Amino acid sequence: MTRKRIIVVGIGTMGSAACAELARRGADVIGLERFSIGHIYGAHGGQSRAFRLSYYEHPDYVPLLKRAQTLWLKLNKDMGRTIYHPVGGVYLAAPGSDFVRLSYEAAMQHELDVELLDAKAVRSRFPVFDIPDDWSALVEAPAGFIVPEWSIAAFADIALRHGAELREGVQVLGWDTTTSGVRVETTSGFVDGDGLIIAGGAWAQGLAGIDGLHVRPSRQVLGWVDAPASASVDFGQLPVWALELEDSSVLYGFPRMDGLPGPAGFKVARHWAGPTMDPDNLDRSTCNADEDDFMPHLRQFMPSAVGPVLDMQACVYANSVDGHFRIGLHPESDRVVVAAGFSGHGLKFQPVMGEVLADLALTKETQHAIEFISM
Ligand SMILES: Cc1cc2nc3c(=O)[nH]c(=O)nc-3n(C[C@H](O)[C@H](O)[C@H](O)COP(=O)(O)OP(=O)(O)OC[C@H]3O[C@@H](n4cnc5c(N)ncnc54)[C@H](O)[C@@H]3O)c2cc1C
Fold first, then answer.
1. Which of 304, 319, 334 is the endpoint of a domain?
2. How far is the centre of ligand 1, averaged over its atoms, from the C-alpha of 267 (Å)?
């Protein structure tokens, strides 16, 4: 049987995992990346990405996350380094909020190892939080974070070791189906294949050419704060944390620890849809005004952690209309697979998305339950 030749557009988060999985299964893989692998212009920069299983966004994500967790632990073992740090998680919210309630319901439905805490217990276990008495929290033992720079490098490495060809500095300009496959036009000529995966992140809308996809890129700010040594924010004192704000956006962050790529300090950010931007003209510089994204909330809920802002970075989300992913075969051709709309919460799914995309590209179907996020 001849090997299927699959072209993957975008060797970012999902594209790198798809290249690795396809190559591991014996496909002839060509990955095309307009920048370099691990660049800072996409969605995958900035040192850390939260991994949660108790998914308030939709309980059907949980089986995918269980598989992702197995694959993250396997990746740690295979690569001989800690890319996924299972440091636990705590999620906090005011009474009546869906954030903790739906996380808890998803956890119960899928028998996850979680614990509910009242405000007094939160303050005693995680003294950095200064929350009102009527708040509650969910503690999740198997949560943690991933270092995206390392996960993308690892998947690219696995792809190369299994014979994939990964081309950097090659921008895809367009694609079309032919009688027997697909033809992709790039800044370095045409590439022919049997199938195509579009994993273009913030550029997915233009690449996929699907009117109803509606992927909206937005600018997001990450901050690193010089929290005082007395603040209980270090690895061992604080897990990955997320706290719902009054406007339903979520302040979140990571334990401070040495040995990670990028800036030092206590990393904090806010998860929200954000202002729409053209990803080709995204303002990556940051200014004092960007601190307003997270510092007022830090002052309110974690005052002991407040210190000078050491560094900030701007990154890009690719928001779908409802915040859910859009995965599946292209409506005009089943030779083309689209992975889009990861809406600021996709990285934790990277290895399982590699499996889903490889399934769809090679067999046009997958055993993973993705109906609720299908195109
Ligand atoms: C600030 C921030 C914080 C986040 N926090 C979390 C978190 O805590 N937990 C979590 O799970 N997720 C988080 N996310 C979301 C997660 O990082 C993204 O959902 C995920 O990285 C999206 O992957 P992607 O493959 O769609 O996009 P990307 O990783 O950006 O990859 C797309 C790739 O396609 C390439 N490309 C685009 N157009 C072309 C073209 N024409 N030709 C060739 N190549 C092209 C791009 O250069 C890029 O490399 C966060 C995202 C941001 C920005």
1. 319
2. 19
Q: Which atom of ligand 1 is nearest to the CA of 252?
A: 8
Q: Which CATH number do you get for residue 139?
A: 3.30.9.10
CA of 42 to the centre of ligand 1 (A): 5
Q: Using CA positions, which residue lies closest to atom 13 of ligand 1? A: 345
Domain check: are 270 and 181 in the same one?
no
Cα 37 to Cα 278, 279, 315, distances in angstroms? 21, 17, 16
Residue found under tokens 């190369």: 160
CATH code for position 196? 3.50.50.60
- Supply the DSSP string of 196-207, one letter for each residue: EEE--GGGHHHH
Given a cut of 70, whether residue 224 has pLDDT beyond it is yes
Nearest-angstrom CA–CA distance, 122 and 352: 33
The ligand 1 atom at the shortest distance from the C-alpha of residue 15 is 25
pTM score, whole prediction = 0.98
Range of the domain at 365: 5-45+149-214+323-373
Percent of the chain with pLDDT over 90: 96
What's the structural domain count of the chain? 2
Q: What is the pLDDT of residue 1?
A: 64
Please work out whether the CB of residue 241 comes within 6 Å of at least one atom of ligand 1: no
How many other C-beta atoms lie within 10 A of the C-beta of residue 271? 19
Residue for token pair 């190892």: 113
Does ligand 1 have an atom closer than 6 angstroms to the CB of 12?
yes
